Amino acid sequence: MKELVFDAFDVEACGYLVKPLDRAAFRRTMDRVLRSLERRTARDLLIQRGAGCEVVPLDRIVYCEVLGRKIYLHQNDGTVLDYYDKLEDLERRVDSRFFKCHRSYLVNLDYVRGCQAGRVTLSPGESIPVSRLRERELTQALLRHMKERDI
């Protein structure tokens, strides 16, 4: 059995389950696999801007902000794209690396560098608000995200 352990790297194993199968362990492993697959497939966001549309790579989006009926996509190169949509609809279209830290903000966890005093610090040096009720959830989401990236 020990000689088979190294074969797991060849097939990109995400976990190791033993018989008898523990349902909770199986569910955790499958959730991790599905999140990993989701991240591999959800790479771009197609947004409608006026009469045209634009493709925005998800890994370029640092955070999303809603003001009124417009969503502003703040990108890692400093540019900001705006378009009309609802934050709830955008939430459904992005992957698990995005977290709703405030009723008006979605943050890309890849860019989070810390959270303190009701603010999320981002790697470009910016900070955005985090709801007091979501601070703990943000920390948990960030830890889960860091663990998933290591898969």
Short description:
By secondary structure, the chain is an alpha+beta fold. It has 4 helices and 10 strands; from the N terminus they run ααβββββαβββββα. 17% of the residues are buried.
3D architecture notes:
With 151 residues, the protein is of the alpha+beta class. Helix content is 30%, strand content 34%. The strands form 3 sheets. Strands 5-4-3-7-6 form a 5-stranded antiparallel sheet. The radius of gyration is 18 Å and the shape is globular. The two termini are 22 Å apart.
Task: Please outline the helices and strands.
Layout (H helix, E strand, L loop, with lengths): L6 H4 L12 H19 L2 E6 L2 E6 L3 E7 L2 E6 L4 E5 L2 H7 L4 E5 L2 E4 L3 E5 L2 E4 L4 E3 L5 H15 L2
Antiparallel strand pairs: 1-2, 3-4, 3-7, 4-5, 6-7, 8-9, 9-10
Summarize this structure as a short list of keywords or feature phrases.
single chain, 151 residues, alpha+beta, three-stranded antiparallel beta sheet, 4 helices, 30% helix
Which class do the helix and strand fractions yield? alpha+beta
Order of helices and strands: HHEEEEEHEEEEEH
Radius of gyration: 18 Å
Query: Uncertain segments of ≥5 residues (pLDDT<50)?
Result: none
Q: Multimeric state of these chains?
A: single chain
Number of helices: 4
Strand tally, please?
10
Amino-to-carboxy terminus distance:
22 Å
The backbone outline, from C-alpha atoms, is globular
Mean pLDDT: 84
| Most strands sheet | 5 strands, antiparallel
Strand content: 25-35%
Bin the helical content.
Answer: 25-40%
Strand line-up in the sheet with most strands: 5-4-3-7-6
